[in-house]
Design goal:
It is a single chain. This protein is an alpha/beta fold. The chain has a domain of 169 residues: NAD(P)-binding Rossmann-like Domain (Rossmann fold, 3-Layer(aba) Sandwich), CATH 3.40.50.720. Helix content is 42%, strand content 14%. The protein has ten helices and eleven strands. It has a seven-stranded parallel beta sheet, with helices on both faces. β5, α3 and β6 form a beta-alpha-beta unit. The protein is globular and about 55 Å long. The model has no long low-confidence stretch (mean pLDDT 93). It comes from Caballeronia pedi. One of its GO terms (molecular function) is aldehyde dehydrogenase (NAD+) activity. InterPro entries: Epimerase_deHydtase (IPR001509), NAD(P)-bd_dom_sf (IPR036291), NAD(P)-dependent_oxidoreduct (IPR051783). One of its GO terms (cellular component) is cytoplasm.
Length: 322
């Protein structure tokens, strides 16, 4: 079937990644069905179909679709006090494991042949083991979200083996790009305002992937026959240091980053007193990801370099502030 005759369903099509995947598919002439909550805004041209919950999905939600890209997930950090730990994990599992399997089963019954899961590098861990993570590393998730993603990967691949539904799993590290939120946006705001950042002495390296690169790789996993039954890491292909990333962002924002060389040990000490240990650990620890498998197996190449992705993100940020 030619690309122009295809239709792909996207759960969570209204989200940051979902919009990028939708745009990329529509540009290629592939029709998009967006499975989203009622009143959610999708990209123009997406056939939005309202759903109430993943576990209540009926096969007709996927009617006419050849493949499905599953982006919908519980991603926000919930209160995780020890007294609530079990409830937190159960909440993540309900959406990210049970909901994923329910969506896959509904897609299979509708005649969908390929189901792509958007997972996370957190299924492996928060820090790399002194070298870039590979797809063959043992899963060792650091929190409830990571546990739920790791379990979803395992159970979904088992489901595919049992039922014949072709499964592909995509594991990105930090995703950035126009429309980014959370810590990446906070860093850009701080740099744009000329605020000093205590990152000058941090040499930890972090893998990143632009949202457009992630969209491109995800679509490749939905279309390429070789992707069936496999798991792939996706990155920009270059792992900047934390201080280097801040400097690059400053260059693209036209505001040189003001980096103060605070030793990592001192930062961690301050963090332990202020309750920010997790955030500082993410800044001071390396998290490198090997993405050679998708390049070798599928012939995929990132359409954007890191600098191109950062330039597009900075341009969006500047326009959003005007």
């Amino acid at each position: 079937m030619s690309e122009t005759g295809r239709r792909i369903a996207i759960t969570g099509a209204n989200g940051f990644v979902g919009r990028a995947v939708s745009r990329a598919l529509l540009t290629r002439g592939i029709a998009v069905t967006g499975l989203v909550r009622r009143d959610a805004q999708c990209e123009p041209g997406v056939d939005a179909r309202a759903i109430n919950s993943l576990d209540a999905l009926a096969p007709d939600a996927f009617a006419g679709c050849d493949a499905a890209i599953h982006l919908a997930a519980r991603v926000h950090v919930m209160a995780d006090a020890k007294s609530q730990a079990r409830a937190v994990l159960d909440a993540y599992r309900a959406t990210n494991v049970d909901g994923t399997l329910a969506a896959a089963d509904a897609a299979r019954r509708a005649g969908v042949t390929r189901f792509v899961l958007m997972s996370s590098i957190k299924a492996l861990g928060e820090r790399d083991p002194g070298r870039p993570f590979t797809e063959d590393d043992e899963r060792d998730p650091p929190d409830a979200y990571g546990v739920s993603k790791a379990e979803a990967e395992v159970k979904l691949l088992e489901f595919g083996s049992r039922t014949g539904l072709e499964i592909a799993v995509v594991r990105p590290p930090l995703v950035y790009g126009p429309g980014v939120r959370a810590n990446f946006l906070a860093m850009m705001r701080a740099i744009a305002r000329g605020l000093p950042l205590p990152l000058g002495a941090i040499d930890a390296r972090r893998s990143l992937v632009s949202v457009d690169n992630l969209a491109s790789a995800t679509i490749e996993c939905a279309l390429n026959p070789v992707a069936a039954g496999r798991l792939f890491h996706v990155t920009d292909g270059y792992d900047p240091g934390v201080a280097e990333l801040a400097r690059k962002l400053g260059e693209h924002l036209g505001k040189p980053a003001r980096l103060v060389p605070v030793p990592a040990g001192l930062l961690r000490g301050i963090a332990s007193l202020t309750g920010k240990t997790a955030q500082i650990d993410r800044l001071t620890g390396s998290l490198r990801v090997d993405s050679q498998r998708i390049r070798d197996a599928l012939g995929w190449q990132a359409p954007q370099s890191l600098d191109e992705g950062l330039a597009a993100t900075a341009a969006w940020f500047r326009n959003s502030q005007s």
